[in-house]
Specification:
The structure is a homodimer of 495-residue chains.
Chain A: H1 15-25, E1 29-31, E2 38-40, H2 42-61, E3 65-66, E4 72-74, H3 75-78, H4 82-88, E5 94-102, E6 108-120, H5 125-135, E7 144-153, E8 167-177, H6 180-200, E9 207-210, E10 222-229, E11 235-243, H7 247-252, E12 255-257, E13 263-265, E14 267-274, H8 276-285, E15 302-306, H9 313-327, E16 331-332, E17 335-336, E18 339-341, H10 349-356, E19 360-364, H11 366-371, E20 373-378, E21 386-390, H12 391-420, E22 421-423, H13 427-433, E23 442-446, H14 451-461, E24 464-469, E25 476-477, E26 484-485, E27 488-492
Parallel strand pairs in A: 3-7, 15-18, 15-19, 22-23
Antiparallel strand pairs in A: 1-2, 4-6, 5-6, 7-8, 8-14, 9-10, 9-24, 10-11, 11-14, 12-13, 16-17, 19-20, 20-21, 23-27, 24-27, 25-26
Amino acid sequence: MTTKTAITPTRQENFAEWYQQVVKAADMAENSVVRGCMVIKPWGYGLWENIQRVFDKRFKETGHSNAYFPLLIPLSFLEKEADHVDGFAKECAVVTHHRLVADGKGGLKPDGELEEPLIIRPTSETIIGESFAKWIQSYRDLPLKINQWCNVMRWEMRTRLFLRTSEFLWQEGHTAHADEADARAETDQMLWIYHDTMRDYLAMPTFPGAKSPSERFAGAVDTYTCEAMMQDGKAVQAGTSHYLGQNFAKAAGIQFLDKDGQQKFAHTTSWGVSTRMIGAMIMTHADDDGMVMPPRVAPAHVVIIPMLKPDTADKVLDFCHSLKKQLVEQQYYGRNIDVIVDASDDRGRGWNWIKKGVPLRIEVGAREVEQGMVSLGRRDLPHTEKRSLTVAELMACLPQELDAMHNALVAKSLERMKKGLVEISTKEEFYKFFAEGKDSTFALVHWNGDAALEASLKQELGVTTRCLPFAEKTPGKCIFTGEHSPQRVIFAKAY
Amino acid sequence: MTTKTAITPTRQENFAEWYQQVVKAADMAENSVVRGCMVIKPWGYGLWENIQRVFDKRFKETGHSNAYFPLLIPLSFLEKEADHVDGFAKECAVVTHHRLVADGKGGLKPDGELEEPLIIRPTSETIIGESFAKWIQSYRDLPLKINQWCNVMRWEMRTRLFLRTSEFLWQEGHTAHADEADARAETDQMLWIYHDTMRDYLAMPTFPGAKSPSERFAGAVDTYTCEAMMQDGKAVQAGTSHYLGQNFAKAAGIQFLDKDGQQKFAHTTSWGVSTRMIGAMIMTHADDDGMVMPPRVAPAHVVIIPMLKPDTADKVLDFCHSLKKQLVEQQYYGRNIDVIVDASDDRGRGWNWIKKGVPLRIEVGAREVEQGMVSLGRRDLPHTEKRSLTVAELMACLPQELDAMHNALVAKSLERMKKGLVEISTKEEFYKFFAEGKDSTFALVHWNGDAALEASLKQELGVTTRCLPFAEKTPGKCIFTGEHSPQRVIFAKAY
């Protein structure tokens, strides 16, 4: 190591560049040759698989079933909901042909033009609505609660690995209900499932709240969001849940015969989290030495690093593999402890695992084998801090150690969020807080709800309303106009 | 029930139409408005999730990691491997634009033409090859063993749910190796993993073997296949594993510095199974009453059907839910027993569950509750055959009962395959065997390997070589030409 930290630049020096370097150093993802599309590498995808597992479990526990709907959406479907198409028209990948033929110059060209262009789904309300309209006939068919894990495409001009890519992976829940109350209860339930799962598994607490009208999902009546605060004070919208009213039901014809004999439109919801959440996790947990994987979704919990010297190599390796065998017998949050033995001859492997953020590092040399001891390092503690333990002690403390790391990550984030949420009571302070070039955090202010004012602040300062926090209920006076404000809202710069 | 069977027509009456009716009656999938794309409904997707789980486990146990690569492939990439592009050019969905704008007639039209058209992946050798070329520098980076679960698109003109759809779900394994022997060992290993997993989990034995040159994957040096025999005697290619030689490595530039200091091209493989396998499972297991779910991948193992009468309904329901609680504590092949209580007032629900193929049906009425008994039906036995058991007996026999059903399904398939594999020794017999309108099965014959002969048989009789079975090793004389034949091959009509 020629620098003090494994990642150059540090967060302090250049946060945006630090982020890119962490993704690269942790070997989680990379840009592909296809504009805006990423390759998710095994270490990043392993994280996503665990994220999927914990969310999927919650969805199933709350009565949702997985299904799969077509990738391609007819253009005319998108047009059915006016606000919705406005929101997505500018970033749609359009399929216009269904084969290739020789172009006469030794290459190929598109051929077989489609009668109607097809859009690669940017989200599936319209295509799933078509199915729902067929599946739902009577109040007995409601609620209908479906989820889909899939890829979606939004043609982004400026992309950043995980945070904003043209193609990304996500889940989209779609439900239909007999009345508004039931649909709103679902919208609410899913937002809290997002909030709790992000905190309890991803070690990422967020601010739950409602979006302002201008920040809502295109076509929604209400959008709820989990806003995560990054280490640089900016916001990431980590998950959203939408109450869609009867907008999409009317567009797709989702009707049912109610108990009272009346034909009614259903009330629908949709909700999603995506690989974008991984970007938020990186900017929440990673440090100047690289990624820090939250233990309950880490691609692996433990790496064992044998220190191999020619005359003792066999003995040390045997010890490591037998240690692994014992460790993988233990369960932690519904999954066997995942252990990697890195016996490569790469001298930088210790640092590689720090950069990858594996929660626990165990070093074993010939002396340790003789003494039946191991040396344990925990990723959220300074890398020089190592504890010497017997194998029995290690076995006994493993789940507690992982829990301790999880709790420390949560506590650290909560502390940062507490410090970073700044109550501001005058317009002047607000402008100063968000002045150009400054590392601002979240401003909690009274605002009259005016969309034109919101738009002008976005233009002037690059800040947006992130959410109307559920925890804020006190009315007051708008700091910009002095008008009535029903509650404080969060303004912040955002990714 | 007005007919003797739940499905009309029966297999005997019209196999193709019976298949469609089973998929519909079991509520597994349906056609979407998008040509050739299907909607996989929860009962079908639940099956797919379990299939994914059992295959994924085997892939990971054999050292493969999951990753994710872009959906879209630049046209120029596809062109790099000549045989490959020939194989897929006629069925590619082509993205040519990246946004929509008003068409001046109140609608929208594609806009923002791309400099280079992008293809929705029909398979990912070319785009994954691009990554492999970057990731692989030295022999130390080999073998590289990656798998991807994703959707792919092949624009099919004639589609059939699960069996042949324009979009389908699959996994594609892609590996790179230092030499031919290692790559061939991988190709072989994965074929046997497919074969064994299909038999041991999907209860679907298959004929493993090699494809003839004309039936190989576009760009492969060798293709191995698992050919399943349907109840009508036709074949379904249920999974394939390809040794790609250095073809794709040369096209993508996958080179490494070997131990001997030489720069060499890697040897690559690819292998895949898809939702098509579900179509094969249906035509293997289903009967004239509907789907029969193999217990080890069934979306649910058990349905409990309470017989509710006003005065005893509460007691019966309590009994059923408490029974469910006990059952779900048990594990079967790495997963808790999955139990559905269907307390709906649908009088056809008993038949619905038969049509859906749930392995075990438990009926509970007031009398059963009093006696602490349940009535058990097993899907592969006649639906009138029910056994009366105490709860303790049921708990004790559950895994055995599921195993018994699995074994019975396997035995039935093996019996059919044994009967259906007919050794044919003359050209005349062969033509008679495959005469038009006849329900032919698999013909095992000596053939000289001539591709022109193979093509003419395909044209005349609609039969193709399905595989050169690994189990066949005896040379002989071609039944068409009298020339040398290194081993017997299987000819059959195929889906």
